## 1
Amino acid sequence: MKTAIIVATYNRPALVDRMLTSLGKCAFPDHEDVEILVVENGKRAGTEEVCARHPIGGRTRYMFVGGSGKSNALNVAIRTCDADFIVFFDDDLTFTRDIVVEYVSAARRYGPRHFFGGPLTADAEVPCPPHLVPYLPSSSIGWSLGDEEQEVDRALGPTFFGANWGAFKSDILQAGAFSEEIGISPVPLSSVGEETELQRALLKDGNRAIYLPKALIHHLVRANCYTLQWVRERRARHGVTYYHVDHKGNPGARELFGIPVWVLRSLCQEYAKRLVAALTFASIEKRTTIVMRISYLKGIVHGALTDRREQRLGLPSGEQSATTS
């Protein structure tokens, strides 16, 4: 069985260097073919040279995808590699020593029609203000299902952190791979959740999710991730994702200039609440809740207006090429 570890990156060579340094200290299973594929998208920013400094036993390979967008870069890498099993990591991680062994062992034991994920520890540069904690993603606060290997209840839906999971290539392709309509890209307020959507598709296709407690990663959380501005933007990105994934899948919803009517109504209500909260000196927790709700709704509006503009201009999705070295 051949395994590929795929890491998508955009303009962050210093973090790739840190990540590969950590990955180079990991144990690799004996008699197994494991490739590390670093996929740089958008523009060349020195990542190729970083990969050359970290061959990790000749396993590291660099790929450049000319177009932007994480989902597109991942799909190019998936279709290009000849691996049977694929593990997805991000460029801002460090690893426990046996993480690769854990993934490869689980893939061998369970086989296709299963996908896997592990826990996350957040390595934060500064403490997080308590009133922001409820609105932070698991990548910023940590996540775990405990110390026992287990199948995740299908009713819970996809729960694995997008930077620490793996699946068989055949199952990924059968589920449609990553949706290129959503996912992180350089454009303002790009959507999020491309990994979640793929995991949903895998579950819908009959695959089973297995939690691996020893497949632990450490995720770097910068100080700016614990600011109101960052969290508001994150909530807005979730709103954009909602528009593309949920609203567009409901063609019967009422719209005004492409914007769901309920969103416009809710925005008016939340702005009124914000005014009242300011006049009554409401708690920071209450004011933060209102701000987050407004940010989410504005994200939906942004998604709707962007989609409407692209339709009006007749913008094509565009084919993006990839080169490898």
Note: Residues 316-325 have pLDDT under 50 and may be disordered.
## 2
Amino acid sequence: MATVVEVQQSPARKTSTTLLDLQLRRRERRSRNFLLNFSRKEDEPPSPVSSPDGPPPPAPPPVAKSSAELALELATWMKTMGNIDYLNLSSNDLSGKFVMSSFISKDAPSIEPYPKLENHQYIYKGGRDKDKNFHGKGSIEFDNGCNMTGEWKNGVREGKFKMDADDSSPVCFLEGFYVKGKVQGKVRVQLSSGVYVSGYAKDSALHGFCRYYDADKKLQHIGITRNGKLFGTCWKVFPGGGYIVGRVDAEGGFTGPNIAYIYPDHRRGFLGLFEGGEMVKAQVVRIQGFELEYNSIKVPIFSLPEGPVYKKEISTYTWITENTLLEDPYEKATVFVGNSATEGAADGLFAARDLPANTIAAFYNGLRRQKPADSATTWQDNAYKIFDPTDKKGVIDILEKYQSISNYCASLAHKTNHSFLPNCEFSEIFHPRWGLVPCLVTRQEVKSGEELLVWYGYDLDYCPDWYKDAWENSCLNIDGDKLQSG
């Protein structure tokens, strides 16, 4: 006869339950909990489990970061990524954390400069094993003057290597680690095109987190490389500031409906349809947070797109833009046009907020024209000309009909007045709407409400009369040492 356990219930109802029944119920509960946990996504936190004292208190929500904090986070990450020496090659990393787990495709381009040493003429200096195979530390000098240093184990490369190659190899420099004769883990290579790649390899192919730099070691791309091609969410860095970010296509290009351009302030940008990295149609968004992809790639979380639609509009000799009154969202946060304190000037450009040194303040779009033969004498008629960074023989010009902000306010750098003691200077930047254009950059901290001024740099033999007068007045009123330092 089975043992009976008395269960306490209300006086109105009493029953008896065997130990076998209790055990079956416990198993059922455990099985149900296991299936619930198994069905959850890996990154989904488990639901609170009830206890005799009631459910546990809910976890506190994550503290939302301010726009300034998010901008600093992205700027700091970009500065770190921009350091080509950030990848420490004093030791390898074979944990697989930053390497793709997938197999290497047979079509993946190899980064191995010397797949078969027997195809080369060289002199070897170093250790050997009893069978005369390379063993231990050694160096090779090739007949073309290139070198290889590293460690072998019974004739197979095993350990850290450093080598260069001639132009016949797609990789002209490699520093990294070999495991059983294949490049595995951390690696830095320079391609024959001059591009440097710093990242992770698998079976002698780039197959993990990688950063790409130009020949001057300036950052170009950040992303996962799979079988030698960019993959997943990637970043493209533009000279002068600004980025494109999004999931690349099968060829590693920035094409799709959810690509974003982020302004140099690391706060706002455009999100929408891009083709080959060019903005087709997009709206303004703000960065609201970040996620991490493949343990390495920052992925921005954006606000919902809002406002008018923007697209790429490269100006021509006769056409400046489709909508001359469509303001730039970045400029709206950095500058405004007001009455200038500069003698003889009407409008001026002012800081809408405190602008630290080296901050891009405004953009200079206009008609793209060719310099006339007597260009040095044309400044008397129109002072709204500036260099065209896409054409050494060209200028970007603001015609008289566009000089009033009531007719043109799509870009505002042309409203900057001259000073022989400027707080700004002209540089160049890639803009998603205008392409490569001049931009106004602060040389020092500029307080909110302070006028932005730039040195025009006219030739005194051909400059406008007002410029000569300003030069003479500045020489009379400004101490020479101060002028030189400015």
Note: The helical segments are 19-39, 67-81, 329-334, 465-477, 480-485.
## 3
Amino acid sequence: MAEVRAAEESLMRTVPPGALMRRAAFGLAVHCVRLLRTPYGAPVSLLVGAGNNGGDALYAGAQLARRGAAVTALLLVPERAHTGGLAALRAAGGRAVPAGPGAERAVREARLVLDGIVGIGGAGSLRPEAAALVAAAADGSATIVAVDVPSGIAADTGAVEGDAVTADITVTFGCLKPGLLVGEGGERAGEVRLVDIGLLPHLPPPTILVLSDADVGTLLPVPGPRDDKYTRGVPGVAAGSSVYPGAAVLCTGAAVRGGAGMVRYAGGAAEYVRARWPEAIVTSGGPASAGQVQAWAVGPGMGTDDEADRALRDVLAFDVPVLVDADGLTLLARAPGLVRDRSTPTVLTPHDREFERIAGPVGSDRIGAARRAAADLGAVVLLKGSATVIASPDGGAYVNPTGTPWLATAGSGDVLSGLGGSLLAAGLAPALAAAVAAYVHGVAGSIAAGGATTSAGGVLDALPAALRALARPDGQRRVRPAGSASR
């Protein structure tokens, strides 16, 4: 978070003293008022530590008190509480007391709890007194709002080493922090809301990007009046076997429904693919005889025997982008040079256990792990998870915001692979193709589940609805910079 602190210092030199904190507090208070709906008389507890996050909470509490809320600030380090914030809260009619006996009851009875214990500079587990108040908040019925980051979460990585806040809402300032997007931090942040405090011009160019619906809508391939089945992109699919024919059906189907003009299938489940997807061009001679393609998706359900190894090597010998998943990753772990030596782009799509086989343990820093693997292997690495991370060899990264636990079902990754292969064939840059595929996949998963449950087949069937939901109304494809997170 050094870049964020440096940007804050740079911005503070251009505004009156205290202005930056008041901007943050105002945005925080606006979100709190919306959550309370009727602030008048509402019991609000502020968990206030020593530092600027505590000051943000106190100033926001002052604005809530002026609207009639019954605000009590519980000071964890009274002698180091922000003096300006304390004065503002008391002047507005709020109370400030040491976080001693009776504090836990006040937290349990609150309608809203503001977590201002520690901020982006915090590290490690919460102290026992703070942890007790956090536990009391979790036991109560209050909406828990974290100030900038939930206390106890590493803002850089999302790692949690001990007791930490689990927020319903995190109101963060200036830019998205990586720890709010990935790992346990992403799970504990709840809904993340960004408040603009004027920080962006003072930050370096972002290296972590987060796509939005609008971004994906501009990137999805849209056929023009002069397109034909070849110009729309022809992906090859090498997936499935007699043991796992479903992987071939799912992967090929996602390529068909992902926007490809034509799909060529070369794998060990030809009869199943031909029966389910008659529009696919099926060959029984293996990838080397599949014909011309613009990209390949290889690996799902193909096995790890000698025949599968030959198929993987044949695919990687093509001078086109290749997406490798599942069994293909297991085979690559035995011969990583197959990827390192390629002159054309490769996208690898491991879950944590597959990642460990090719690049070692993921650890608590998922973005850092994906970046290290991408740099080492010279490939785009899509590390699957509740917040999928896509990292490029140059250090750039995307974090996907549409992940859903409903995608944790057998065959879901096969759908992602086919979709990614289709987008690669359509001409999207490798990292963008992976990021857009993950985004659409997540949307399809949510549509398919509908709040209940789904299967990989359901996700596949929901792809057209997801693509329709994200497509630009005017049917035009435009590319513009994505949203960003800072690190």
Note: The radius of gyration is 25 Å.
## 4
Amino acid sequence: MGSIGVGDAAPGFNLESVNMGTVSLGDYIGKRAVIIFGRYFGCPVCQYDFDELIAKVDKNREKAEIIYFTQSSPEVARKFIMEHELEFPVIPVPKEDGHYKVYNDYSVRNMGIGTTIEILRRASIAKKAGKTHGEYEGRETQSPADFVVDETGKIIWAHRGVLDLEKILGFLNST
């Protein structure tokens, strides 16, 4: 199975978010979208990265809309985001036939060695920031990933690994 990437049409989806109703990729045609695949909200690295995303998203909303996927259950996701006033959808991806379909559609698979090392490094940073491990959900070996989709629904940025907002913002500012 090949990997979807830059130049490919972004796979469509139509899923229920915990904070903005049903969300479809078609809702974003005519806009740029940053699609972020987190792991699950019990993960301290994901908690830390989510806080970083919230801190930087308001300043950069004019560049692209955000769509956030998680493998957390709707209950856990709803509880986690409850304290935040978000202007982007958080979508718990349902497991279908033992797989997280949207993750598979975007070829977001298990972490490689480089991502594993970065997760461990970032876990130390998250711990120093006071993040603690919560409930285990999803696949523990799941890689995070992010994509930028242009106004026509084509992928113009693809990255599998730990969220790097500076690189995403650099890319958005250069295009």
Note: The chain has one domain: 14-174.
